[in-house]
Amino acid sequence: MNSQNVVAGLFIFFLGEVIGQTDSTRRGRCEEKAALQAEIRNFQESQEVLRGEVANLREALDSVSSLVAYSLPEDCSAAKARGSWTSTTMIKPPGLPPRLVRCEQREQGGGWTVILARRPTNNPVNFNTTWQNYKDGFGDISEEFWIGNEVLHKLTREIPHQLRVVITDWSDTKEKTATWNMFVVGSEDNRYKLGIDGYSPHNSTASDELQIHNGSSFSTHDYDNDIDTEHCARQHGGGWWYFQCYTANPTGKILMPFQAGDHGMIWGVHPKKLTLRSLTMMIRPVSPAPYHH
Ligand SMILES: [Ca+2]
Fold it and tell me: Which domain holds residue 176?
């Protein structure tokens, strides 16, 4: 064998080795690819399983939430009937989702759901607001708020309710109160029309400034439903059952004693007109705990 043949033989040998190695690398890559594909399949399968479990959990959570909602009291009188004395209570009004409300459980036997609260505060709530806000309710239930016209309608549409008002004015910080034995709020289609009657003079130290609002539609600065040629809500700065325009303006601005103006939180007309410092309105069923599931 001459040296040329040796070189050729070596060359062929190394070429064979290189080709063999390339083949094994290719085989290795194929195996890796198959393993990766299997892992991806496994991952996809476990993802499907997880998705199923999340759906099951969601379903379980829904039924727990509806159970909780079902077991909540419909209003503060139902809460009182179950022995609740707390002022902040989660209720489930008929036909509406659960919501936090303020209850008055001590005054006059309790069971009152507070629907409007006003008092001087460092963070006054803007009551000169939209139809939508008055529909849904707004403010802070530990300070100033409006409960919402939809809640008022749903609570009062089937169950006879009474209304109680507690006011103070700047000249006399002693509370004055008044009670009406009929209070009902119509649907939004009826522009949340007010029904009020049955002022009880023997039970009241505040004058009846609401009876005259009976039958009025609700108005806000973006909806003029009053019978006046003017837009009472814009003129007087609240959302209310204005007519021509008011004898009580509970959602007006809280004015200081030295201020004056018809846009204020006013109770009554001259010479009985009071500029109010605080006001609370609350309702309860005439008969206790009348709701049925
Ligand atoms: Ca008008």
Answer: 73-285
Per the omega criterion (within 30 degrees of 0), is the bond before 98 cis? no
Last residue in a domain, options 42, 71, 100: 71
Ion ligand 1: residues, Cβ under 5 Å: 224, 226, 228
* Cα dihedral 116, 120, 123, 124 sign: positive
Q: List CB contacts of 30: < 8 A, sequence separation 6 or more.
A: none
| Centroid of ligand 1 to alpha carbon of 207 (angstroms) | 26
Domain-terminating residue out of 71, 86, 111? 71
Question: Are 148 and 246 in the same domain?
Answer: yes
Contact (Cβ atoms closer than 8 angstroms) between residue 150 and residue 132 = no
Partners of 90 in the beta sheet? 100
Question: 114: CA distance to ligand 1 center in Å?
Answer: 29
- Of 173, 142, 144, 185, the C-alpha closest to 283 is 185
Expressed in angstroms and rounded, the spacing between residue 243 Cα and the centre of ligand 1 is 8
Asked, for residue 177, whether it belongs to a domain, the answer is yes
For every one of its 293 residues, what pLDDT tens digit does the chain have, with 9 covering 90 and above? 555 666 666 666 655 665 566 666 777 788 889 999 999 999 999 999 999 999 998 888 887 777 777 789 999 999 999 999 999 999 999 999 999 999 999 999 999 999 999 999 999 999 999 999 999 999 999 999 999 999 999 999 999 999 999 999 988 779 999 999 999 999 999 999 999 999 999 989 999 999 999 999 999 999 999 999 999 999 999 999 999 999 999 999 999 877 878 899 999 988 888 999 999 999 999 986 565 54
Residues 207 and 138 in one domain: yes
Give how many domains the chain has, as a whole number.
Answer: 2
